[in-house]
Design goal:
- By secondary structure, this protein is α/β, with parallel strands linked by helices.
- It folds into three domains: 198 residues, Rossmann fold (3-Layer(aba) Sandwich), CATH 3.40.50; 65 residues; 83 residues, Arc Repressor Mutant, subunit A (Orthogonal Bundle), CATH 1.10.10.10.
- Strands 2-3-4-1-5 form a five-stranded parallel sheet, with helices on both faces.
- Strand 6 and strand 7 form a beta hairpin.
- Helix 1 crosses helix 2 and helix 8 packs across helix 9.
- The protein starts with 13 loop residues before the first helix and ends with a helix.
- The structure holds adenosine-5'-triphosphate and magnesium ion (MG).
- Magnesium ion binds next to helix 2.
Length: 368
């Protein structure tokens, strides 16, 4: 894991970190999944609390964010594991990970022309991922220390194209349960649930999934007191708590409020909150995100945020047709939904039931 610079604004959560480590110490479970809405502090907890605490207790630690590497979660995971080892191991591993792909590709016979060739490439890349994983795990097996692996945005592993690697990962971790502990994190409860609850999925029944405990009053007091130690005009604690509520109890937005307040103290707390709400809930980046969507995708989102969950039913189709001013088929809907899911905008709750992943974006769409 990269070294994390000290951040005075980080509200430490040692007790929560201890609780996870104590649970692993019991040895009844070796994997846990945690989920919470976007921007609630999952990544910050993993990188600034849990992994440093684990390292202090003698674990090797590895962190990877699969969303940043969603095209190649296998190499992301393998390099995170390699980095947990001694640095000299890393170069050798990375070299190995890249080199043989060409070899296998060249030697694969290509029966069906272009299409077959593409397939052969995919499979050989998958094989390489699995081999590299076995390599790095073999190196880890020789270490005395146990390993804590944090897989952030783990839902990427649930996608069908990574299924071979996910199966290999699961069985490799399974036989090392006593030495390798795993934390899965993600913002989509359903996708994570699917990962662990479906018999055909690689991680079926493997990790208990639980909500990530959210930041609350103590975080607000901590941040406000720290701000006040530097402010010329102190911010009232009561007002800070109110602001936190009005910002949907989202730590990231609360910190934007504090920053705004600190920079424009003369304008007062109410002005800072108004500014933050305006920027958070009618943010230019939502407009950009919206403008980048195809009209069909926008129409589908509009229906979703207004509570229309069965998009394939006749009333929904009629509304979509009128929004798009042309006849809409089930195909239009399913293509839109597929694009929106691939872009992490929408998540599937159950068969035929969808929801926006980011509640703040949903509110923005609703306000349009
Ligand atoms: N313990 C904390 N102390 C101080 N600030 C925090 C803490 N946790 C989160 N934050 C603030 O909230 C922001 C969002 O946190 P983080 O990126 O960890 O959320 P997340 O749940 O991983 O979100 P996403 O699902 O979008 O990845 C951080 O950049 C930070 O400003
Ligand atoms: Mg995160």
């Amino acid at each position: 894991m990269e070294t994390v610079l000290a951040d005075p604004w980080h509200f430490p959560r040692p007790a929560l970190a201890e609780a996870y480590l104590a649970m692993f110490d019991l040895k009844l479970t070796s994997a846990r999944g945690l989920f919470a809405r976007r921007r609630m502090g999952k990544t910050e907890f993993l990188c600034r609390d849990l992994l440093p605490a684990a390292a202090k207790q003698g674990y090797l630690v590895a962190y990877t964010n699969l969303w940043d590497n969603r095209a190649a979660p296998d190499s992301a995971l393998v390099s995170a594991l390699a980095m947990a080892l001694k640095p000299q191991g890393v170069q050798a591993l990375l070299a190995k990970f890249r080199a043989p792909v060409k070899r296998v590709r060249a030697s694969a016979s290509i029966p069906g022309g272009v299409e077959g060739g593409f397939e052969a490439e995919l499979t050989s890349a998958a094989v390489e991922g699995v081999l590299a994983l076995q390599d790095v795990l073999a190196q880890l097996d020789r270490q005395k220390q146990p390993l804590l692996l944090a897989i952030d945005e783990a839902q990427v592993l649930a996608s069908a194209e990574h299924s071979d690697f996910s199966h290999a990962l699961r069985s490799a971790l399974d036989i090392r349960k006593d030495r390798i502990k795993v934390i899965f994190a993600g913002s989509s409860e359903t996708t994570l649930r699917d990962m662990f609850a479906r018999p055909l999925e690689p991680f079926y029944n493997w990790a208990a999934l639980e909500p990530f405990p959210l930041l609350g009053a103590e975080f607000v007091s901590f941040t406000t007191e720290l701000a006040n130690s530097m402010a010329r005009m102190p911010l009232s604690l009561d007002y800070a708590h109110r602001a936190f509520d009005e910002l949907h109890r989202t730590p990231e937005f609360f910190k934007r409020f504090i920053e705004r307040y600190m920079l424009y103290q003369m304008e007062g707390e109410a002005a800072a909150l108004a500014h933050t709400k305006a920027s958070v809930f009618s943010d230019g980046h939502f407009l950009k995100q919206w403008n980048n969507l195809l009209p069909a995708d926008q129409a589908v989102l509009s229906l979703l945020v207004h509570g229309e969950s069965d998009l394939y039913a006749a009333p929904a189709q009629a509304k979509l047709s009128s929004l798009l001013r042309q006849a809409v088929t089930k195909n239009t809907v399913s293509h839109a939904l597929r694009r929106l899911q691939a872009a992490n905008v929408v998540t599937r709750l159950a068969l035929g039931e969808y929801r926006l992943e980011d509640e703040t974006f949903a509110e923005w769409v609703r306000r349009r």
